[in-house]
Amino acid sequence: MRRRGDLRFGFSLVFWREVSWLRRRPLLLMMTTIIPLAVMALLATVFSAGLATRLPIGVIDLDGSELSRSLVRTVDATPETSVTEHLTDLAQGRQMILSGRIHGLLLLPQNLQRDVLSGRQPEVVFFYNAQTLTTGNLVLRGINAAIPTVSAGIRLSLRTAQGSPTVQATASLQPIPVQVNPLFNPSLSYTFFLLATLLPTVLQIVVTTTSAYSVGLDVETPYRLRILRRLGGGLWPAMAGKVLPYTILFLLVLGLADAVLFGVLGLPLSGSRLLLIVAAILFILACQMIGGLLALLLRPMASAVSIATLITAPAFGFMGIGFPRFGMNLFSYWWGALMPGTWFLTARIDQTLRGTPPDLSLQPVLILGIFVLVPGLLAALRLEALRRRAAETPPQPTSAPQEAT
To answer: What angle do CA 300, 248, 210 make, to 5 degrees?
Structure first.
């Protein structure tokens, strides 16, 4: 029967061994700290502006009238678009869109002003690249805001010139006014929408693959597993001492990223801080349990790391951030549901942008707890089977395990 002091000593010994491994293994240190921090810094730099503005577009003005020039000035004044090119040929405009020099092309037809003043409805055409969803939708939103504004002003002037009272003319332009109130992200900032979700997605990949790598170092062969068990004074204190340094390190990385998000970039924290912290801890532990389970099930260690990458790398597309999960097919829906990052992002968005009451956000937190318990239980059963197999296998006549790099 092992004494409690021996278990604490074994736990501490393995814990500090892992800390020393981080210093002596550049690849492991890069995977746990440098790579996620570098990716987060790059993403924060890219999305720090919050919203893409003044996107360049081109104009072909075939009318050359005062009305067409007013339309061009209004389009140029919108926050989303900037008229940088005045062209005369559609083929040239198409080539500039394909090359990325401009993101859209506005075509104003001949006799535009004459047709408008005579009560006709001339057609203004806007070309844009629908494959570039973000920039394409932004420039389209700018055009859709500018053209109706000018059109409404002209129609109002025509009606008042015909003797209609201003109030009646205004009401006839929009008999049922619509009040639009965007919820949770009223500024439409990509800092809040993308950056707050991309960072945990990157961390999910890093935590899972690093856990598969670090656990695989000690369980890849029965001999290494025996060394770990003897070093830790038992299998369970040894595994706890092995996992804990990375848990602390990943929580520090996530905390540093959140400090930048909330403190520097101004991400709102409208909900419960405690619930957000609990969700973050469960998220890190769940990713570690999945990575550790893969290392216990797959041989060699490189296979576990490859499968961990294969599972987590495409997960962002199935988490319901860019496309709603209820509209996905069954395969995509369940892929997202089986990733702890999906539920962490749900709790994270609830407690930051939405300000959801804590009792309504308990479901994703409880699901994260299941992601910790189920892989942890499976890993425990597999570890026990490996321990028994290692006990039955005669020791190899080698002095020490070779360290993986």
So the answer is: 20
Degrees, nearest 5: CA angle 355-356-357: 115
- Per DSSP, the three-state class of 91 is helix
How many Cβ atoms from other residues are within 10 Å of residue 404's Cβ? 15
Short-list 108, 116, 122, 121, CA closest to 59: 108
pLDDT at residue 342 in the model: 92
Give the separation between CA 80 and CA 38, rounded to whole angstroms.
30
Q: Mark residue 295 as left, alpha or beta (left: phi above 0; alpha: psi -120 to 50; beta: remaining).
A: alpha
User: How far, in whole angstroms, is CA 192 from its chain's centroid?
Assistant: 10
Say which residue the tokens 């170092």 belong to: 217
The pTM of the full predicted model, rounded to 2 decimals, is 0.77
* Residue (of 252, 186, 272, 183) closest to 40 by Cα position: 252
Angle at 272 between CA 268 and CA 273, to 5 degrees: 80
Q: Assign 20 a pLDDT band (cuts: 50, 70, 90).
A: confident
Average pLDDT over residues 53-62: 93
Mean pLDDT (the chain, rounded): 82
Q: Mapping DSSP to helix (H, G, I), strand (E, B) and coil, where does residue 18 land?
A: helix
**For residue 53, what pLDDT is reported?**
85
Higher per-residue pLDDT: 321 or 139: 139
Q: Which amino acid is at 37?
A: L
- Residue 85 pairs in a beta bridge with 58
Residue with tokens 């790391």: 305
Q: Which domains are seen in the chain, by residue range?
A: 4-48+188-392 (no CATH), 55-172 (3.40.190)
Strand order in the sheet with 125-128: 81-86, 55-61, 104-108, 125-128
Alpha carbons 269 and 259: distance in angstroms, whole number: 11
Average pLDDT over residues 307-321: 85
Query: Is residue 140 within 8 Å of residue 97, measured between CB atoms?
Result: no
Say whether 155 sits in a helix, a strand or coil. Answer: helix
- Contact (Cβ atoms closer than 8 angstroms) between residue 312 and residue 380: no
Residue appearing with tokens 């890219």 = 46
How far apart CA 127 and CA 202 sit, in angstroms, is 35
